[in-house]
């Protein structure tokens, strides 16, 4: 078919409204799962990061690092993601103007 396919999944959904809601398998286990998917299906992986400290580990597995809209203005997070050398997808928050 010729359509590029990318697998997107999150290891942690940090934006849940209830602290009792399931957030995901966490960084370490989640990255193991994503790596298995990447190898088994030969697909590029995209996942999001919420903290600067996650970027290095995520960059070892993901082909694309996504910054959630609610974190799009966190400079330290953006810099840490960029330092991985991976493609960065920054989702634009509603609070941002077109000049950001």
Keywords:
100 residues; alpha/beta; four-stranded parallel beta sheet; 3 helices
Give an overview in words.
The structure is a single chain. The longest helix is centred in the middle third of the chain and has 15 residues, at 27-41. The protein has one domain (7-90). β2 (45-48), α2 and β3 (64-67) form a beta-alpha-beta unit. 28% of the residues lie in helices and 14% in strands. The chain is globular. With 100 residues, it is an alpha/beta fold. Residues 3-97 form the DAHP synthetase I/KDSA domain. One of its GO terms (cellular component) is cytoplasm.
Q: What spatial order of strands do you see in the largest sheet?
A: 1-2-3-4
**What is the overall silhouette?**
globular
Beta-strand share of residues: 5-15%
Percentage of residues in helical conformation: 25-40%
Number of continuous helical runs = 3
Could you give the order of the helices and strands? EHEHEHE
Main beta-sheet strand count, sense and barrel state: 4 strands, parallel
GO cellular component, one term: cytoplasm
EC number: 2.5.1.55
GO molecular function: 3-deoxy-8-phosphooctulonate synthase activity
Organism: Papaver nudicaule (Iceland poppy)
């Amino acid at each position: 078919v010729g359509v590029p396919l990318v697998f997107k999944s999150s290891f942690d959904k940090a934006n849940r409204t209830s602290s009792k809601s399931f957030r995901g398998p966490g960084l370490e286990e989640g990255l193991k799962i994503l790596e298995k998917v990447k190898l088994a299906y030969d697909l590029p992986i995209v996942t999001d990061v919420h903290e600067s400290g996650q970027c290095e580990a995520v960059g070892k597995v993901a082909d694309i690092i996504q910054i959630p809209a609610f974190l799009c203005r966190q400079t330290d997070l953006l810099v840490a993601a960029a330092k991985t050398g991976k493609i960065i997808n920054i989702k634009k928050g509603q609070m941002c103007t077109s000049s950001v």
